[in-house]
Every structure is written in C-alpha cells, then in structure tokens.
Amino acid sequence: MSVLTGTATASQPAPAAFGLGRTVRLGLSRIGYETKVYFRQTDTLFFTFLFPVIMLTIFSVAFQGMGNVGANPDGTGGISQAAAYLPGMIAAGILLSGVQNLGVDIATERGDGTLKRLGGTPLPVLSYFFGKMGQVFATSVLQIALLLVVAVVAFGVSLPTDPAKWMTFAWVYLLGIATSAILGIAISRLPRSGKSATAVIIPPVLILQFISGVYLQFALLPDWLQTVASIFPLKWIAQGMRSVFLPESFASVEPGGSWQLGLVAVALLIWLIAGLVICRATFRWIRKDS
Question: Residue 172 in contact with residue 264, Cβ under 8 Å?
C-alpha cells in the first residue's frame, strides 16, 4: 500500500510538467501563425515594418545637402545624415514593433471577437502572449537587419567594429523590445473598439518619436521637453542606440554629458516591470464592459 502511495505521489508533478510543455509547444506554433498574419497585412507592413526604413531614406536624401553632422568649422569630419539618423530609426522600429503593432493588433482582436473565441478554446493565455511576443521579436530582428543593410549599401554608413558596442546593442535591444511588447499589450486596453485602435494608439507613438531624439536631435529640444521625453522609454532606447552607432565625441551633447547607459537600463527595467503589472491586472480575453 505504501508503495502504491509513493508511486502516486511521485507521479503528481507530471501533469504540471505536461501542461508547461503543452503551453510552450502551442506558443511556438503561434509564433509562426502570428508572423504569417503580420506579413499578410499591407498596412501593418508599411506603418511598422517598412516605416523606419522609408523614413531613414527620406531624411538621408532630404538633408544630405546640409553636409555632415558634427563637422568641423572648415566642413571636415563629422558623420553623414544617414549615420546620424540610423540609431533613432532603429529605436523607432523597436517602439513600432512592440507598442504600436501589438497595441493595435490586440485591440482589433478584442473588438472583432477573436479574443472571445480564443477564450473558449483550450489555448492558454501564456501561449497566446508567447506567440505575440515571438512574432514581435522575429519581425523586429528582420526590420533592424534591413535598416542596417540599407544604411550600409545605399548610404555608405560604417557600422561599429568594437565587440563591446555590439554587446551594448544586444542588451539595449532586448530590454527595449521586451518593454515595448509588454507596453503594447498594456496599451491595447485603451481603445474602446477595434475600429478606434489606430486613432487612439498611433498619435501618441508618433508624438513620442518627435520628442525622443528620433527625427530631431534630442539636444536641440527645450529643456522642459527633454524632461517630458525622459519619462518615456523611447528616449532611453534611442539614447542607448546612439551610444552604439555614433562616435564617442557625440556623448558630450547628451543631457548628462555622457551616454548614461546605467540610467538607460534602469529606466527600461522600470517600464518593463510597470507594464507587466498593468498587463497582469487588466488583461482579459474580453472586456468586462463588452
């Protein structure tokens, strides 16, 4: 009898392990599904995937007649307009891939009843999020790769050769994309319907790009606007990317006179934790007031 009891006790953890394995397998399959759906949506492709590449091309061509950024008084030195805009476009792509893409996508799925239907299936919520975040990671990596190829091939931008720079790029990217994805899930609760999702989410994201050092040099903004931008994660993602792709001499024009990578990490971690708390408290398969 004791042997039977012992056997039953030893087998008890098996269902939990099976459940976790099933959740992971379903999540992995969702990544492929979500990625296919993403690339079939032409509006999503333009406004999230190709938008940073298009903006990099426009700004690089439009302002190349102004000469290099940070050039000496005699016109020598400095970096090209494309090189100056590249880190900002990478940061914008991270924000668009996470916040805008997931925010609009999940709000739309809530509005058209997709989440309600999924809530009636055995699909775990974690598998659903695993698929969404996996899709964001996969598409953002492809987007950054395309940005770098266009910058190097079309505009002759020189990429960093120091391995330490690429290590910084890796952790800023991972923290940035994770934070953006979590905040995208959290912000998806704001639209009252799927039809209003783009109107509610895109304008704030666009404003953040203008005040966070993406389209305009951050050091040229008024102090009060720099303070406002510093509240939000895009400013810190852009600053981290500038530390990777811009010469060290450019650090002197940053608000603190340096890249402040420690503050970059702290700010993004705070937003990541805050986003997780909001998601845990507010996400439902369907709205309570629907």
Answer: yes
Q: Rounded to whole angstroms, how far apart are CA atoms 28 and 219? A: 42
pLDDT tens profile 133-156: 999 999 999 999 999 999 999 999
In terms of Cα–Cα distance, which of 174, 79, 107, 164 is closest to 136?
174
The token pair that represents 169 in the structure block: 């790029």
Q: List, for residues 16-73, the tens digit of each pLDDT value.
A: 445 788 888 898 999 999 999 999 988 888 888 999 999 999 999 999 888 899 887 7
Which residues does 163 contact at the CB level (< 8 Å), separation at least 6? Answer: none
Look over the chain and give the mean of its residue pLDDT values, rounded to a whole number.
89
